[in-house]
Amino acid sequence: MRENFYTFWFKCSRSWITAWATASSAATMPVTLQVAAERKIPHMVANFTIPLGTLVNMDGTAIYFPTVVVFLAATQGMPLNAGDYAIIVLLATLSSIATTPIPSSSLVLTLIIAESVSIPITGMYAVVVAIDWFIDRFRTLVNVSGDLLASKIMAKLTGITDEDSADFEPNEQVQRHVQCWRCTAAGPTHAAQPDQGDGLGVDRCRCLVVCSVVCCRRYLLILFVRCNTAMVQI
Predict the structure, then answer these.
(1) CB neighbour class for 207 (10 Å; exposed up to 12, middle 13-18, buried from 19)
(2) Whole-structure pTM over 0.70, yes or no?
(3) For helices 43-56 and 124-158, what crossing angle results, to 10°?
């Protein structure tokens, strides 16, 4: 069933108003997930597309980078040829994916793109810094709106519904692994108990390995985000 874009967008106003207020896609993500549920977007689709879009779907930032770089060049009387525009568009697209979802994180990447086409950083960059806090709110609004729209489109293209989530419910073997992990995490008293014939003793080592890998992936993701944040602050 088709739906008018503007009607859908206005019904999602709670998410993009929050995005405008916080200027952060990451801070808005809980509200975006709630709005997606209200708009009847399947949980399986929303839980995949919205966190992914929060990290890589920076539509407003991709528009912002070329605009600022061309502005810096124009205010200094520097002409740009077709090759320069191609480099700016390519780097703007890649840099928008690499931008962290925090306020004013694109200022550093703007310098990199400007220097790649030999545009000197002068006092005009201070003008960009002075108004970036305000423009950043509208960029975040566009980003969050794009996340919700992409989720709606993906739900339409894939045909996934909430009823399909039953196919991905934990089976008996996974539940045994979880129970084994809980017994092991409870302490040496539970871990030292002999196998009672339910197979937990056999699967305990495998369960520990799986849980260790999952924890390591989470810690690496947290470390990656903190490193990116530290680089932006520098």
Answers:
(1) buried
(2) no
(3) 160
